[in-house]
Amino acid sequence: MQELVQSVKVVDDDRKQVILEILADKYCKSILHNTLEKPKAALEISGETKIPISTVYRRLQTLYDAKLLAISGSINRDGKKYFLYKSRVKSISLKCDLEVTSVELVPNIRIN
């Protein structure tokens, strides 16, 4: 069965700038890639990507603020809260002709 993928064009210049800055950051790209398939905890992301945990938390907040990352949470048996993070985008396409920069996002709609 073929999946129809709809891309979303970003029109706001400020949002485009934020996305460009995120794509220039190797840690943000690594976190987005690492959380494509399934939601993961910050410690799991840190361990798998070899990114220091403090850096992971800072980049998670950046990605969440840019609406590129989803956060879900729950409470474990010990009564402690934990959060899982998952990429909201499957891919990001850029086109720049030095006058106009266009950015398109393909949503990550993978069902686990």
Question: What does the model show?
Answer:
The chain contains 4 helices and 5 strands. It has a domain at 13-89: Arc Repressor Mutant, subunit A, CATH 1.10.10. Helices cover 37% and strands 29% of the residues. It has a 3-stranded antiparallel sheet with strand order 1-5-4. It has 112 residues and is α+β, with helices and mostly antiparallel strands. Strand 4 (89-96) and strand 5 form a beta hairpin. The mean pLDDT is 91.
Write the layout of secondary structure elements.
Layout (H helix, E strand, L loop, with lengths): L7 E3 L2 H11 L2 H9 L7 H8 L3 H13 L3 E7 L5 E7 L1 E8 L4 E7 L5
Antiparallel strand pairs: 1-5, 2-3, 4-5
Question: How many helical elements?
Answer: 4
Helix content: 25-40%
CATH architecture of one domain: Orthogonal Bundle
SS-based structural class?
A: alpha+beta
Strand count, sense and closure of the main sheet?
A: 3 strands, antiparallel
What overall geometry do the principal axes of the alpha carbons give? elongated
Given as residue ranges, the uncertain stretches (5+ residues, pLDDT < 50) are none
Mean residue pLDDT = 91
Find the count of extended strands (DSSP E, 2+ residues): 5
CATH top level class name of one domain? Mainly Alpha
The third-level CATH topology of one domain is: Arc Repressor Mutant, subunit A
CATH-defined superfamily of one domain: Winged helix-like DNA-binding domain superfamily/Winged helix DNA-binding domain
Order of helices and strands: EHHHHEEEE
Q: For the terminal residues, how far apart are their CA atoms?
A: 17 Å
Across the major sheet, the strand order is 1-5-4
Q: What integer value in Å does the Rg equal?
A: 15 Å
Estimate the strand proportion.
25-35%
